Amino acid sequence: MHIGKPHEAITRICRASAESVEVRGRDLCRDLMGRLSFTEYFYLLLTGREPTDNQRYFLDLLLIAIAEHGMMPTVQAARMTLSAEPDSLQGALAAGLLGCGPVLVGTSERCGKLLAEAQARVAAGEDAKAVAVEMLQDIRKAGGKLPGFGHPVHRPTDPRAERILELAEARGVSGPHVRMARDLRAAAAEVWGKPLVMNVSMPIAAVLLDLEFPVAMIKAVPLLARAGGLLAHLAEEQQDPIGFTLAAHAEAAVVYRNNDEGGG
């Protein structure tokens, strides 16, 4: 049974033969290997285009900014999985990546959608600051969470976010999406009645959009970055394992009550 409308199956990414591998119309061995960095190659794979100097520079920068943030739940899941199955490096990596959702790591995707929606309204003639305030008022009235703001550790500012914005200004790539991110920060303080910390996810999305990165693939950047961080933790786990220690502390921190004891 065929699900969906029948159509011709096409890929424009890669074709391999006995003699060569062709990637996005380029010869992998004779053209790409030895010429492109992995960052440039990743951009080519995703977009079909080789990056400009600024696109490469900021993709590198953003991958570094989000790759590592300590003993996050995703890291703990990966380490405990490797402790339970030491031969499954890929399984442990997958366990960590599966936790990269909208609460941890994946917020940049929601930031990108918010910025794109806001900027579309501005391009249609609305005032940017008014759009920012109205959109955030709608989010708050609906009881929703504001993506790209708030952080349990970094206060009153997220140093990673501020550095990204600083370099975007210095290299002249701040465009309408970065300006909208700043408008959203001001609007958040107005709507919530206090300054909110802009975390790293918002400038990641804003800079990527200003550099013409596809909004649907913004989440790919933190995912790729966190894969690198997770692999570092798993390499350390192989040498100095702490996975079972993490599991023991988790078990000790949880109080068990049977159904007859009730809550309290």
Structural write-up:
This protein is mostly helical. It is built from twelve helices and three strands, in the order βββαααααααααααα. Strands 1-2-3 form a three-stranded antiparallel beta sheet. A hairpin with a 2-residue loop joins strand 2 and strand 3. Helix 7 crosses helix 9 and helix 8 packs parallel to helix 10 (201-210). It is globular. It starts with 13 loop residues before the first strand and ends in an 11-residue tail after the last helix. The model has no long low-confidence stretch (mean pLDDT 94).
How many separate helices?
12
Helix content: 55-70%
Strand content: under 5%
Parts with pLDDT < 50 across at least 5 consecutive residues: none
Q: Whole-Å distance between the termini?
A: 54 Å
**What is the H/E order?**
EEEHHHHHHHHHHHH
Structural class: mainly alpha
Task: Report the strand count.
Answer: 3
Specify Rg, calculated over alpha carbons. Answer: 22 Å
Overall pLDDT metric? 94
Sheet with the most strands: spatial strand order: 1-2-3
Largest sheet composition: 3 strands, antiparallel
Envelope shape? globular
